Amino acid sequence: MTSTTSGTSKKAVVIGAGFAGIATALRLRALGYQVTLLERLANLGGRAQVFQRGGYRHDAGPTVITAPFLFDELYELFGEKLEDHLDFVPLDPFYRFHFADGSQFDYRASIEDTLTEIRRFSVDDADGYLKLLEKSKKVYDVGFKKLVHRPFTRVWDMVKQIPALLILKCYKTVAQMVNSHLKHPLIRQAFSIHPLLVGGNPFKTTAIYTLIHYLERRWGVFFCMGGTGKLVDELGALMARQGIDIQCNADVDEIILEHKTAKGVRLSNNATIDADL
């Protein structure tokens, strides 16, 4: 995609400055829109806030990155390179689990090393993990490749995906999917954690989230040096360089509609912002 930031005078308003809102604002700016990004909190990042205590900075939200190419794309939209601004470090192990009985399990960067770790707990679960990973790839091929990049502005767009999701048994929960392949209780816990990373419950969250197992294998797990707050700060700087109007402490009370089409927003202070999108 090539940036065309001077190609239109149309205005766009994006509500919410989490990673999704930031990415949307940047992509709209690359299409040439004059973009206003509104965030009700005092800082950018959404759940990716930072708090300081005892002289240390702590990430309050996400701490690892599992699809680094998505951030590369945002810089490439404007002819920049992510590595000139940020340092993503690959992790091995991906995760280290400390269980209540004193045992430890490392979810390693290579499949073979992970299988070695699994065999320390259960020899049979090594084969079960490979089958879980195979299932995860099938869910990834539908849930990530086909669904993530679609806007689903029509009900029929989602309805068309239901047969594939049913075949993959995505009506099950993450815990049910994992438990159908793994037997050792601690290994089950380790491979059911992904919903927890986004505030979900493995016993209630749809099994579509098992796609993350393959996503991590495909792209790796990374830590942003300086923490997730550093990533948010640099994305904020990228938006500023591109002339995006960033307004924090801006609480949206109403989306203004004309003939069922959004034409702007009204803030809690009663100010209005017009928009074409």
Q: What's the short version?
A:
The chain is of the alpha+beta class and 277 residues long. The protein is built from ten helices and twelve strands. The chain has two domains: 11-62 and 228-274, FAD/NAD(P)-binding domain (3-Layer(bba) Sandwich); 92-220, no CATH class.
Strand order of the largest sheet: 1-2-9
Helix content: 25-40%
CA-based shape: globular
Number of domains: 2
**Number of helical stretches of at least 4 residues:** 10
Q: From the alpha-carbon coordinates, what is the Rg to the nearest angstrom?
A: 21 Å
Low-confidence stretches: none
Strand fraction: 15-25%
Helices and strands, in order, run as EHEEEHEEEHHHHHHHEHEEEE
Biggest sheet: strands, sense, closure? 3 strands, parallel
Oligomer: single chain
Instruction: Determine the N-to-C terminus distance.
Output: 20 Å
Structural classification = alpha+beta
Question: How many strands appear in the DSSP assignment?
Answer: 12
Mean pLDDT: 90
Describe, in plain words, how this protein is organized in 3D.
With 277 residues, this protein is an alpha+beta fold. The chain has two domains: 11-62 and 228-274, FAD/NAD(P)-binding domain, CATH 3.50.50; 92-220, no CATH class. The protein has ten helices and twelve strands. The chain has helices at residues 19-30, 68-76, 111-121, 124-143, 155-159, 162-167, 174-179, 185-190, 211-219, 228-241; strands at 11-15, 34-38, 50-53, 56-59, 88-90, 95-98, 104-107, 222-224, 245-247, 252-258, 261-267, 272-274. The strands form five sheets. The chain has a three-stranded parallel β-sheet with strand order 1-2-9, covered by helices on one side. A three-stranded antiparallel β-sheet has the order 10-11-12, with no helix packed on it. Strand 1 (11-15), helix 1 and strand 2 (34-38) form a beta-alpha-beta unit. Helix 1 (19-30) runs parallel beside helix 10 (228-241) and helix 4 crosses helix 9 (211-219). The two termini are 20 Å apart.
